Amino acid sequence: MNGIVVVLVAAVVLAAGYLGYGRWLAAKWGIDREAVTPARRMEDGRNFSPASCFTAFSHQFSSICGAGPVTGTIAAMMFGWLPVLLWVLVGGIFFGAVHDFGALYASVKNNGKSLAQLIEKYIGRTGRRLFLLFSWLFTIIVIAAFVDMVAGTFAMKTAADGAVDTAASYAGGTAGTISILFTFVAIAFGWLNRKIGLTGVKELALAVVLFVLMFAVGMQFPVYLPKYGWFAVIAVYLLFAAAMPIQTLKQPRDYLTSIMMIVMIACAVVGVVVLGANGQATMTAPAVADLSALASNGSYLFPLLFVSVACGALSGFHSLVSTNTSSKQIEKESDMLPVGYGAMVVESFVGVLAIVFAAIMFSDLNTAGTGALNGGVAATPFSIFSQGVARGMTAFGVDSTLATVFMTMCVSALALTSVDAVARIGRLSFQEFFARGNDAAEDASAETTGLVHVLSNTWVSTVLTLALGLALAFGGYNNIWPLFGASNQLLGGMTMIALAVFCKCTGRKGWMLYVPVAFLLCSTFTSLVQSTIGCVNALAASGTAVIATSGLQLVFAILLMVLGVIVAYNCLKEFFTKKAGSMPDEEPEWTEMGRANVKAEAADAARSAGGEGVRG
Question: Would you call 2 helix, strand, or coil by DSSP?
Fold first, then answer.
């Protein structure tokens, strides 16, 4: 199969899904183009910050498009590229995009409430507390997996005598330097935009200039650090990214990252076309593998395919981004479709590109048991994808060194921009656990005392979240990924149930959620049970030797299953007992800040009316 055909067909299918099913869904649930969104009504310069459609899309896309669409799809290709491709397309349109858009929609319609706060409103306070605990544990797993990936990509390689192998380490060291610069450049870029109000072409032009400068400096001054040295650097970055106001670092960084991701996607598409024209885009990987042989080794198509692909088709993590951060940046309700549904469709397309390049690069894999590409580079999903796209870029005239550095930076940014969003959400989930109210705006100003006051402090909650995530990261992402995939999809299933309750309570149609809910719960609980059995067997075979990896994973797996069962039970119980149309969308005055704004508007209107009366 020629890779050009697959890319073209996938692009048409995904575009049709957005224009057809996405628009139909938005019309079915209802979009009020005149409504004042929570971002505008409750702007506070910290969490609620209205942004343009592209900026909000940039935040959503760069936050959700992490390592998943590359790592998950390529890892799942053990079953062949065709099953993975079909799940990415079907799952992306009817599962993932509906999930992301639905979570964003419900939050915007409820004054920017997080998913946990939505669960309290529609299911109950106990459900909220349990869900917050689940979310916090989940974010720790994601931090662990993605930090290990990024640090491993940046890490220097050493020669036999222990010296730095600069040739082998150059791409990672350069990408690391650019990532460090990225942080400071993003802060300056955001400050400058707020100061002089750059928009449109001028904003884009400044971003491009900054990119060129960062790459020029990075390629001249690569930083060579061992893997755990990069652990420390990333930890410091995450500490500030999770705790600082969103418009200071996260929002401008996401804008810059999205531009880089769009350029990467364009380069990948052009690369496939050029390689295809040269007869080098044949997908040599098997379309369907020997499933019976895989099953005999314990790798079953169900549920492993559906929890491994994760972000390329559906990711529960996306609901946390949609409700914790993106809903607080939506300027107009009409922006919800491109931000919620559109970002997921684009991510699915990234998953398709990963499948195509992995299938093309399959012929270059060293089959002698070394697990390396012919160039000697370890055949991780990241290296396969980055080298594949770099080869395509070289085919249309880009310098090979620049192409390799650019792609190394891109795949690292895919993970890094997600992990800083995860760190922020983990911190918010931890703080929210101690909140007494259920108002998206009032919790930040609520008075607390004693131990609760200390634990709910922004910096303390951030440090605790990162410390546990980094501790788990020492087990390596290969050990963590199956647990991440299962818990991620379980989170998606719980989100879908909560959205079904939301639709019923507000009188909206929710039948399009029922099949995804049933499928996700079945696949994720099956996978978690398998992970638990695997951890128990590893402990029995090795004893205390794997207590820090398999033992910790076993604890997480059991906790996630117990919490998942309880939350799912409570959601389903409320779904079958709630009356249709019994709880309308929140009005602005239902929040503390909303009440203050409504009173201020009423006072302004009264003064205006009085003034007109005097003039009359």
Answer: strand
pLDDT at 546 over 70: no
What is the chain's mean pLDDT, rounded?
84
Nearest to residue 171, comparing CAs of 211, 219, 213? 219
User: pLDDT tens digit string along 159-171?
Assistant: 878 788 888 888 8
Cα maximum dimension of the chain: 92
pLDDT at 334 over 70: yes
pTM: 0.85
How large is the C-alpha radius of gyration of the chain? 24
Q: Got the DSSP string for 299-319?
A: --HHHHHHHHSGGGT--THHH
Burial of 36 (0-12, 13-18, 19+ CB in 10 A): middle
Number of CB atoms found within 10 A of residue 129's CB: 17
What single letter denotes the amino acid at residue 501? V
β-bridge mates for residue 372, sequence order: 378
- How many angstroms separate the CA atoms of 62 and 256, rounded? 9
The two structure tokens encoding residue 587? 């009005």
In the predicted model, is pLDDT for residue 72 greater than 80?
yes
Contact 30, 381 (CB under 8 A): no
Residue from 76, 570, 12, 56 nearest 345 by CA: 12
CB 38 within 8 A of CB 111: yes
- Please name which of 104, 492, 586, 584 lies closest in space to residue 329, comparing C-alpha atoms: 104
User: In this predicted structure, what is the pLDDT of residue 387?
Assistant: 85
Question: What CA–CA distances, in Å, run from 81 to 2, 51, 88, 95, 373?
Answer: 13, 38, 11, 20, 19
Helix axes 227-243, 458-473, angle to 10 degrees: 150
The 8-class DSSP code of residue 547 comes to I
Give the CA dihedral 332, 335, 336, 341, nearest 10 degrees: 180
The pLDDT confidence band at residue 561, using thresholds 50, 70 and 90, is: confident
Task: State the CB neighbour count (10 A cutoff) for residue 473.
Answer: 24
Tokens 């290296």 appear where?
383
Neighbours of 297 (CB within 10 A): 8
Average pLDDT on 464-487 reads 76
Q: pLDDT tens digits for 513-528? A: 999 989 988 888 888 7
Rounded average pLDDT over 8-36: 95
Separation CA 25–CA 284 (nearest Å): 38
Q: Contacts by 557-560 with C-beta closer than 8 Å and gap 24+?
A: 557/483, 557/486, 557/528, 557/531, 557/532, 558/532, 559/137, 560/134, 560/137, 560/138, 560/483, 560/486, 560/487, 560/490, 560/528
Cα-Cα-Cα-Cα dihedral sign, residues 259, 262, 266, 268: positive
Who's near 555: CB < 8 A, 6+ residues apart?
none
Asked if residue 433 has pLDDT above 70, the reply is yes
Residue in this structure with the two tokens 């992990």, named with its chain if needed:
419
Query: CA torsion, points 313, 315, 316, 317, in degrees to nearest 10?
Result: -160
Judging by beta carbons within 10 Å of its beta carbon (0-12, 13-18, 19+), is residue 614 exposed, middle or buried? Answer: exposed
